Amino acid sequence: MGRYLLSLKRFWATALAGQLEYQANMLIDLLAMVGSLAGSIFVLSLFFGQGRELGGWSWEAALVVQGIYTFLDGVSSTWLRPNLSAIVTHVREGTLDFVLLKPIDSQFWVSLRIMAPAGLPEIGLGLVLIVWAASRAGASLSLGTSLVAVLMLFVGGVILYALWFVIAATSIWFVKTWNATEVLRAVLASGRFPVSAYPPTLRLVFTLVLPVAFLTTVPAEVILGRAAMPMLVLGLFLAVLFFLGSRAFWLFALRYYTSASS
Amino acid sequence: MKIAGLSWPVVRALLVSQHANMVQYRAEIALWALSGVLPFIMLSLWSQSDAGASFGFKGVGLARYYLSAFMVRQFSVVWVVFAFEEDALLGRLSPFLLQPLHPLWRYVAAHVAERVTRFPFSVGIAAIFFLLYPTSFWLPSLGQFLLAFLAILLAFSINFLLQSLIAALCFWSEKASALERLLLIPYLYCSGWLVPLAAFPDAARTASFWTPFPYLIDFPARVLAGLPVDLVAGFAAQLFWLTLLLPLVLMAWRAGVRRYTAMGA
Fold first, then answer.
1. Phi, then psi, of A221 in degrees rounded to 5
2. Residue-wise DSSP of A107-158
3. Is residue B12 included in any domain, yes or no?
4. Could you tell me which residues come within 8 angstroms of residue B145 by beta carbon, excluding any fewer than 6 positions away?
5. Looking at CB atoms within 10 Å, which of A20, A215, A224, B25 has the fewest?
6. How far is CA A196 from CA B40, B49, B215, in A?
7. Considering all CA atoms of chain A, what is the largest pairwise distance in Å, rounded to the nearest integer?
8. Is residue B6 situated within a structural domain?
9. What is the number of domains present in chain B?
10. What are the tens digits of pLDDT across the range A69-96?
11. Which chain A residue lies closest to B188 (C-alpha atoms)?
């Protein structure tokens, strides 16, 4: 365990040092992040107005969902996207060989090797938006609900990671479909809105098949104090299931890895 | 006969070779086609709210708008900045510059070939849409279709020039694709890709129409969907942006080539 923590510290320190070489890029990333959050809130505001609600959610409550989406988007820019999109390069160039030979778990290595600090401000901005919108929506956070909210955010993160990881790992067979994660990202954009705003069939898909609901809507419900116990249990169950599934899938996929040009 | 360095055999050779290249990547292209599903997600949201009718889309108008927006994006999406950045960084640009042909033509050919490869997938997605939503089915008349084709072609050209302008900045900076991300944001929100401009508050709509973005999705999509649209103003604006961008791109390119140092070659 200590070895893993030490490795993680080294990984991220070197990644940080590498990224700081490109300071102009950091500025552009910051601008892009603020612009895209502003645009996204603007689109959300078009659904309100004239006293309308979105799937039974008030404007402030929907902003909590938006904040959680921003937070998770920051998490994926910081860790998921840079790491998981590198898997296909490892497969194509055969450098996965070197990863597999290291005396450390290969899934741990490919999932956490890099950290892109450009995503960190987005995480912060998401948290600020969550807290601000929650207080505007009249939520009173006790210690208990805060802990449950953190747990459900973690559950959302795990589900997101597992989905993304499984799709990225299919590149062991299909090198050419590396952009399948772009399709996932496009669908995950539906998490910007509370799941009850969608038609019933899509709601079912977003709860059970592609559990977008547990990424943003359920944590928001916890924060706003309107979560239903069965959903929390289902979320926990799905997170465990998806994580174990991603583990099993990785071990299965590695059996088919034949190294480059062999 | 040569026009802008192009003759018929050159055009043919470029298109045939690029098409052969793109067909190799058809699985990847199918996934790119699929990654444009965002308009359908937005449509499903509007369909649950009564807001759609309040900004002037009667009946199936909104469904047709979003399907058209999807199709327009399929045929006007441009990735020249990414291809160019890679070529410039790896030094592959050097042999291109030696040829008696503007290197941008090579990227134009690649985009055309990719559109041909993508076409069946886009049509397939549209067919599934009609199966799920049969009342929205329509076929544009021949005249409408030709006008929409022209509007999409112009939208593609504006998009291509905008990105080429950023790509030309690769001559000065190694990471011009970061700037592309900045350009993408007004494109996403002002073009009508997520929400038709008719839904915007008046001030935001007026401001958007001063940018090129509504002419990249909203205008061609309205033409294709057969929604009420000011054709003359739309085409005039598209031509205006083209004539503004073309000399800029050529100038930036010429200045950039002079600075080119053939990195990695």
1. -60, -40
2. HHHHHHS---GGGHHHHHHHHHHHHHHHHHTT----HHHHHHHHHHHHHHHH
3. no
4. B224
5. A20
6. 16, 11, 33
7. 64
8. no
9. 1
10. 999 999 999 999 889 888 888 888 888 8
11. A39
Whether residue B35 and residue A183 make contact (CB cut-off 8 A), yes or no, is: yes
The Cα–Cα gap between B172 and B174 comes to 7
Residue B186 near chain A (CB below 8 Å): yes
Render pLDDT for A18-31 as a digit per residue (tens, 0 to 9): 877 777 778 888 89
Segments forming the whole domain that contains residue B223: 19-259
Alpha-carbon separation of residue A197 from A217, B26, B48, B49 (angstroms): 11, 35, 7, 8
Q: Any residues with CB less than 8 A from the CB of A184 and at least 6 apart, and which?
A: A163, A164, A167
CA distance linking residue A44 with residue A117, whole number of Å:
28
Give pLDDT, residue B172.
Answer: 81
A42 residue type, one letter: F
Q: Which two tokens stand for residue B241?
A: 């942006």
> How many beta-carbon contacts under 8 Å exist across A and B?
87
Looking at chain A, which residue has its C-alpha nearest residue B47? Answer: A199
Question: Measured between alpha carbons, how far is A104 from A78 in angstroms, rounded to an integer?
Answer: 22
Would you list the domain boundaries of chain A? 2-254
Question: What is the Cβ-side half-sphere exposure of residue A232, based on CA atoms within 13 angstroms?
Answer: 18
In chain B, residues with a C-beta closer than 8 Å to the C-beta of A32 are: 181-182, 184-185
Nearest to A16 by CA among A79, A96, A88, A104: A79
Q: Could you tell me if residue B9 is inside a domain?
A: no
CA dist B134 and A89 (Å) reads 42
Is A165:B16 a contact under the CB 8 Å cutoff?
A: no
How far is the C-alpha of B158 from the C-alpha of A194, rounded, in Å? 36
Residues of A in contact with B28 (CB under 8 A): 176-179
Distance CA A198, CA B94 (A): 51
Mean local confidence (pLDDT), B23-43: 89
Residue among A54, A55, A186 minimizing CB distance to B38: A186
Phi then psi for residue A54, to 5 deg, are -115, 105
Q: Which residue of A22, A43, A174 is in closest CB contact with B27?
A: A174
**pLDDT one-digit tens code per residue, B71-106:** 999 999 999 988 888 888 777 888 888 888 888 899
The reply to whether B188 falls in a domain is yes
Say if residue A259's pLDDT is above 70. Answer: yes
Q: Which residue has the tokens 């076409």?
A: B119
B48, A190: Cβ pair inside 8 Å?
no
**Distance in angstroms (rounded) separating the CA atoms of residues A85 and A243:** 19
Distance from CA of B210 to the nearest CA of A (A): 17
Contact flag B49-A52 (C-beta cutoff 8 Å): yes
